[in-house]
Design brief:
Elements lengths: L1 H19 L14 H7 L2 E12 L11 E12 L3 E8 L15 E9 L2 E3 L7 E2 L15 E4 L8 H23 L1
Parallel strand pairs: 3-7
Antiparallel strand pairs: 1-2, 1-4, 2-3, 4-5, 4-6
Helix pairs in contact: 1-3
């Protein structure tokens, strides 16, 4: 009985560790594009000051998990953008995530994914002091209000709970048969 319990626990632990282990590290390399190309591919383009970074914590022991960049928006060039707009970015530089310093003004080129705006190193977002904005469109004011923050990623918690529940059911069934 103890052997089967230990084996079940080891199997569940091994599955969780395999699922939770980060993949191989990859360096980010971007294909260069013009502002016009980035603009054409984007769902939203705006300028604003980064005033907060909401780190979503450690992702399976990796310190550079997703974060929401909160911008105070000045002007909008494309899309529906709020006065205070959150933009989700993935991990650090190695995974093409974008972690600019707070308090500076940026051109943000973003796309929608799962109902949220996302941006990264390769999308065309940059500091405004890196060059003039070259779009053939007029800027307009942002929409009043705030965008929502990114939700907490619950799939890892749900997956772990499902594994524990499956192991418990398996143990109970084994006990009843014995």
């Amino acid at each position: 009985m103890r052997r089967s319990l230990a084996a079940a626990f080891a199997a569940v632990l091994a599955l969780f560790l395999i699922a939770a282990t980060p993949g191989a590290a990859c360096a980010c390399s971007c294909v260069e594009q013009t502002d016009a190309e980035a603009f054409a591919d984007a769902d939203a383009v705006f300028t604003g000051t980064l005033d907060d970074i909401d780190e979503e914590g450690f992702q399976f022991g990796v310190a550079d998990g997703p974060a929401t960049l909160e911008f105070e928006v000045d002007e909008v060039y494309k899309g529906e953008v709020s006065e205070r707009q959150g933009v989700v970015t993935i991990g650090g530089d190695a995974s093409c995530g974008w972690r600019p310093p707070e308090g500076e003004r940026y051109l943000v080129v973003a796309y929608f994914e799962d109902g949220e705006l996302h941006a990264g190193l390769c999308g065309g977002s940059r500091a405004l002091d890196e060059g003039p904005i070259v779009f053939d469109v007029e800027a307009y004011a942002p929409e009043p209000g705030e965008s929502g923050l990114a939700p907490f990623p619950v799939w890892p918690v749900v997956g772990a709970a499902a594994l524990v529940a499956a192991a418990a059911v398996w143990i109970v069934l084994r006990r009843r048969r014995a």
